[in-house]
């Protein structure tokens, strides 16, 4: 049984909208299950967190975590959809994966997503921006253009 | 005891990241470290989303002057991953060939600077002299010493001419010979061992927890290597070893890099052998990219380069995420710098191969009453002390 099948069997109740390609496995989860899944992928399966990608869609924000299972070269990519674009909030996975510290700070910086229980929730890339930005760097950029 | 603070940085204009370190020292020992980045506002991801796929490849090539083929390989692999595109076999060997030549020149650059930081200036001059040969090989293959412009979606842009292969092999022989000498020096020199062993240790657990990649994690016994774990291009068809070490100190990082140069040379030989046998096209015609998302990664000299591209079916990416290896390796300083002496700080910060201009810009340490020498000087003095002990004077 492949690692993906094993994973799917275990979490079939909490994952949805799966996309499976060669070496890549994307699936949606909710914020409530994020820590359970991150803990399983990182601690049980021994995956490494490559990074996380934030994307702004028309009606929501989404974060895709890229967990790499280095023994098989398989990527597990849980996707968390955030409907509330004005006050986006997600649980931090830093208590589980220390390496997520800067990754989450960058998401906060770019899209204004606040991570609950993050030990150091400051901006990262725009921390020393000369303009002292008071808005996320990329969030709602269309509206900014119209203004 | 009073705590002093030493600011390092922040400006170093060569890399994508400007870094600022503030070392808190008690006497000679570093007790805490604060890091900040964010002086560079290059907006590569945003600019890439305004360009078409072909232009994006040239753009990401300019993210880093040293990894200038690792980013394009990861980028074209991400685009190819959307449609699971295959590339011609000859293109596979050329991609791996260029990638490995880049690894040699990057490791030699690091080796030279690491030598300089601990007062081995001869190593610095020699390593950079041999690096010139690698750049000449690049010029023979691509026409450029840097920013090779080789990668295309569906293959590579330039072919390796059969008449150049003997010349490339001659140059590679020279590099092999010199690298064996340097590996021997690293193995035999008691001063180098005394200076670097046990300095800036990143433990196995810390390397896993910080999600470090590349030589930084392999020196701590984490055997991750994208070339072997997620075989792509020619790597699945080549014979090579993944070099690991156990202790996670600066000495092990040095050994891993020197041995990796020899492995890269082994890979290049196999690629050149195959290129003189295999014939065929080097580029497939790719007319359009379907809507979807793709992940591309490549084992750059410093670790895993990661690109994520989302396409909406048009000719440009709607989201392009880039993660360079230094981004996950730099936070490991939190673990490796605590408890070390201030004269070891420079080489520990340099050991993950971040940008070097910042370290050269380190400010002078001043106390209230007297002026002290700078970090580079402290580091060289420590090597000199050890050398004198060994020579008995």
Provide tags for this entry.
A: 147 residues, Beta Polymerase, domain 2, five-stranded mixed β-sheet, two-stranded parallel ribbon, 4 helices, 27% helix, disordered C terminus, B: 393 residues, Cytochrome-c3 Hydrogenase, chain B, three-stranded antiparallel β-sheet, globular
Note the gap between the termini of chain B: 33 Å
CATH architecture of chain A: 2-Layer Sandwich
Specify the number of helices of chain B: 16
Reading side by side through the largest sheet of chain A, how are the strands ordered? 1-2-5-4-3
- Overall geometric form of chain A: globular
Helix vs. strand class of chain A: alpha/beta
The name of the CATH topology of chain A is Beta Polymerase, domain 2
Quote the average pLDDT of chain A: 86
Q: Which CATH top level class of chain A fits?
A: Alpha Beta
Task: Work out the count of structural domains of chain B.
Answer: 2
Profile the largest sheet of chain A. 5 strands, mixed
Number of strands of chain A: 7
Structural class of chain B: alpha+beta
Uncertain segments of chain A of ≥5 residues (pLDDT<50)? 143-147
Form type of chain B: globular
Characterise the protein shown here.
- The complex is a heterodimer of chains A (147) and B (393).
- With 147 residues, chain A is α/β, with parallel strands linked by helices.
- Chain A has helices at 3-10, 31-44, 100-111, 141-146; strands at 16-21, 24-29, 48-56, 61-69, 74-82, 89-91, 114-116.
- Chain A has 4 helices and 7 strands.
- The relative contact order of chain A is 0.14.
- The termini of chain A are far apart.
- With 393 residues, chain B is of the alpha+beta class.
- Chain B folds into 2 domains: 3-40 and 340-391, no CATH class; 86-285, Cytochrome-c3 Hydrogenase, chain B, CATH 1.10.645.10.
- The interface between A and B is medium-sized, with 34 and 35 residues.
């Amino acid at each position: 049984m492949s690692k993906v099948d094993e994973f799917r069997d275990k979490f079939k109740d909490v994952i949805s909208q799966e996309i499976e390609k060669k070496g890549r496995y994307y699936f949606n989860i909710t914020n409530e299950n994020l820590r359970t899944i991150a803990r399983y992928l990182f601690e049980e399966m021994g995956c490494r967190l490559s990074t996380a990608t934030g994307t702004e869609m028309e009606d929501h924000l989404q974060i895709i975590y890229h967990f790499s299972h280095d023994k098989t070269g398989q990527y597990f990519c849980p996707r968390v959809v955030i409907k509330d674009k004005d006050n986006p909030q997600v649980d931090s996975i830093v208590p589980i994966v220390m390496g997520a510290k800067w990754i989450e700070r960058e998401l906060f910086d770019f899209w204004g997503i606040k991570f609950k229980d993050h030990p150091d929730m400051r901006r990262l890339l725009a921390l020393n921006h000369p303009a002292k930005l008071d808005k996320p760097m990329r969030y709602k950029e269309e509206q900014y253009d119209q203004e | 005891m009073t705590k002093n603070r030493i600011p390092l940085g922040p400006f170093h204009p060569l890399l994508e990241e400007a870094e600022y370190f503030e070392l808190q020292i008690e006497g000679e020992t570093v007790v805490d470290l604060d890091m900040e980045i964010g002086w560079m506002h290059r907006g590569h991801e945003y600019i890439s989303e305004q360009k078409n796929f072909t232009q994006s490849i040239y753009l990401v090539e300019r993210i880093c002057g040293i990894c200038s083929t690792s980013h394009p390989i990861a980028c074209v692999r991400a685009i190819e991953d959307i449609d699971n595109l295959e590339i011609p076999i000859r293109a596979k060997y050329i991609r791996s060939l260029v990638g490995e030549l880049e690894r040699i020149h990057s490791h030699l650059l690091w080796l030279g600077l690491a030598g300089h930081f601990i007062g081995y200036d001869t190593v610095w001059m020699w390593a950079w002299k041999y690096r010139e040969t690698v750049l000449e090989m690049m010029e023979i293959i691509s026409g450029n010493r840097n920013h090779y412009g080789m990668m295309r979606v569906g293959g590579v842009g330039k072919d390796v001419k059969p008449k150049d292969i003997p010349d490339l092999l001659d140059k590679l022989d020279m590099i092999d010979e010199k690298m064996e000498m340097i590996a021997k020096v690293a193995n035999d020199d008691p001063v180098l061992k005394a200076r670097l062993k046990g300095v800036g240790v990143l433990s196995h657990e810390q390397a896993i927890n910080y999600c470090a990649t590349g030589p930084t994690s392999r020196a701590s016994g984490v055997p991750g290597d994208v070339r072997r774990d997620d075989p792509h291009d020619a790597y699945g068809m080549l014979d090579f070893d993944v070099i690991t070490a156990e202790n996670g100190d600066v000495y092990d990082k040095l050994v891993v890099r020197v041995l990796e140069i020899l492995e890269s040379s082994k890979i290049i030989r196999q690629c050149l052998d195959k290129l003189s046998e295999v014939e065929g096209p080097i580029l497939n015609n790719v007319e359009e990219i379907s809507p979807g998302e793709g992940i591309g990664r490549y084992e750059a000299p410093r670790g895993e380069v990661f690109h994520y591209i989302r396409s909406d079916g048009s000719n440009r990416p709607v989201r392009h995420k880039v993660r360079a290896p230094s981004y996950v390796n730099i936070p490991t300083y939190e673990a490796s710098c605590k408890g070390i002496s201030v004269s070891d700080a420079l080489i520990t910060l340099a050991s993950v191969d971040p940008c070097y201009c910042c370290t050269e810009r380190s400010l002078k340490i001043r106390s209230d009453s007297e002026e002290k020498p700078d970090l580079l000087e402290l580091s060289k003095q420590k090597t000199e002390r050890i050398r004198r002990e060994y020579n008995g004077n």
